[in-house]
């Protein structure tokens, strides 16, 4: 039987992507105590890179928000893996760290990372409200536009 978060995902018409594998010397997540630290999730959808480029150059804010939402979906997928499939165990989305590949003139990083922040509240309700950072960077791995890591509390 599906839990309330799985039911909420279904209600929102959201299908979680396949969990991304680590591509270097790290693991997708680490559990310590009652926290899951999820490694940076990129704009990969079921093995295919999406949203390649730089904000303010070949991508706009709407593209960036969609990229951040995809990163958020990948975060939720990793948390689901970490919790043996039971997202109802999440008691708090603690923090998101967002990195936006943009031109030096691009300053809408907070709006871009809202793509992931809004998703967390849509899926988890008040439990999804979190602290965060939205940082502009000169480049990201594989030319992607957004990368986001996260900390989640669970019971």
From TrEMBL:
Q: Read off the InterPro entries from this record.
A: Endoribo_LPSP/chorism_mut-like, RutC-like_sf
The organism sits in which domain of life? Bacteria
| Domain Endoribonuclease L-PSP/chorismate mutase-like intervals | 7-142
Q: Which Pfam families match?
A: YjgF_endoribonc (PF14588)
**What protein name is recorded for this chain?**
Endoribonuclease L-PSP family protein
Naturally occurring in which organism (per UniProt): Candidatus Terasakiella magnetica
